[in-house]
Amino acid sequence: MFPSVGLRAVLRSSAGVFRDSSALGAAVSVRPRACSGPALFSGPAVNKGSFAVPPPVRHYARVAKKKKTGPESHLDDLSPTMLKMDYAAVPLAQSTDDLVKRLLSLELANHREKLELKKEQLIAKVQRDENDRNSVEVQVAILTARIRNYQEHLQKHHKDKANKRRMLMAIDRRKKLLKNLRLVRFDTFEKVCEQLGITYTFPPEYYRRATRRWLAKKELCIKVFKAVQKQRAEQKMQQRLGTTEAEEAKAPQAQTT
């Protein structure tokens, strides 16, 4: 009997403590944390209870970037409807279906096949006859097609040292051929340069490394040349003055006589 009465008294006292703590918690208002820095989200914040919920972030689509247009290729003048070089002389390829013509045309050809056709076009401009394949003019045309292909490749891949070396070797070879052709047959040389669009520049008389000693010697020679020119100009002026004085001295003598 006594233990049950004491247990009831303890439970009543603990229930009263819990009621007081809940009342105290309701009286105290929980404030949300204020952001000291600038607002991270645009738009009004939505309050749910005692915490601020930011609005959803909207991901807008980016502006489409314009594609960079590369340099003009020397193969742009080739029509995509032209047949490949292996099928151009076949009469059956001219009368086939449109789908087959498209498969055999340059529209679906790779870069090597287009380059071969361009090379044949350049050769046809300068060759002596239909069977000419080893003359100087044909060799210049082949080297010109290679050089332009290397130049187009190096504009996109400027760190390709191997192809740059091959291009310089082809340029040197073409220079030697054009130099010999200019000395032997000047009319053919002019025709080749005009047909292939080559601008020939004359090489220097000699190649010399510009050292400091050579630059100092050149500067001294220029100074000496200018001093000599100045001295000669002064001598000419003195001679002119002497002739004028002699003429003036002869003039009164002629009047007296």
Percentage of residues assigned to helices:
55-70%
Q: Structural class, judged by helices and strands?
A: mainly alpha
Overall mean pLDDT stands at 79
Strand order of the largest sheet: 1-2
Main sheet attributes: strand count, strand direction, barrel closure:
2 strands, antiparallel
* Poorly predicted parts: 20-46
Beta-strand residue fraction = under 5%
Description of the molecule:
- The chain has 257 residues and is mostly helical.
- The protein contains eight helices and two strands.
- The protein has helices spanning 2-27, 91-94, 98-104, 111-126, 136-156, 161-184, 186-196, 212-256; strands spanning 46-48, 51-53.
- A two-stranded antiparallel sheet has the order 1-2.
- A hairpin with a 2-residue loop joins β1 (46-48) and β2 (51-53).
- It is flat, with a radius of gyration of 47 Å.
- Mean pLDDT is 79; it is low at 20-46.
